[in-house]
Design a protein that fits this description.
This protein has 182 residues and is of the alpha/beta class. The protein contains seven helices and five strands. The chain has a five-stranded parallel beta sheet, with helices on both faces. Helix 1 crosses helix 7, helix 2 crosses helix 3 and helix 5 packs across helix 6.
């Protein structure tokens, strides 16, 4: 059990990091930060624009800077992008500054949940199933290694997943209190 004033949600695209993050943050009195929104605010560009103009490497640099800024505060819940775990420095920062929750979802469920999504740059291809499978092969070991708690969200609607997370967090996370985030 990692005592911390912060939570970080990691996991594949479509696992529910943002939707569940908002609900869990409210339940525990945490300030919610969607890392993709923070990246856009800090850079003045959308995620798609960053990918288009800077490539994935440039985007990942912005992502690391935004994560570092978000985790300077206490009392936050950060919903990361699916690829935030690719950086060893990001993984170390998350492990040091937060209790990390791995939200898992199968590729089959991802395809269903993301069937109409046209905003995620890495999924704007005809072979979405293969892209998601390749990402899972690369990222799942990192999620499993870093996550201190794991919830498979395939079988749950958001309200049920939130209830499960709240129960599991109450049993496994020792919430430290800290100064109010700015």
């Amino acid at each position: 059990m990692n005592p911390s004033s912060n939570l970080v949600f990691i996991g594949p695209t479509g696992a529910g990091k943002t939707s569940l993050g908002r609900r869990v943050a409210e339940r525990f009195g945490l300030h919610f930060i969607d890392l993709d929104v923070l990246i856009s605010e800090l850079s003045g560009s959308s995620i798609a624009e960053l990918f288009e103009h800077l490539g994935e490497k440039g985007f990942r640099e912005h992502e690391s800077q935004a994560l570092a800024q978000a985790l300077r505060a206490d009392g936050v819940l950060v919903a990361t992008g699916a690829g935030a775990v690719l950086s060893a420095a990001n993984r170390q920062l998350m492990a040091e500054r937060a209790f990390v929750v791995h939200l898992h979802v199968s590729v089959k469920a991802q395809l269903e949940r993301l069937s109409r999504d046209r905003t995620r740059p890495l999924l704007q291809r005809h072979d979405r199933a293969q892209v998601l499978q390749d990402m899972a092969v690369q990222r799942d070991p990192l999620y499993r290694q870093l996550g201190e708690l794991c919830l498979d969200t395939d079988q749950y609607i958001p309200a049920e997943a939130t209830a499960q997370l709240v129960l599991q967090l109450a049993a496994h996370w020792h919430q430290l209190t800290g100064p109010t985030p700015q």
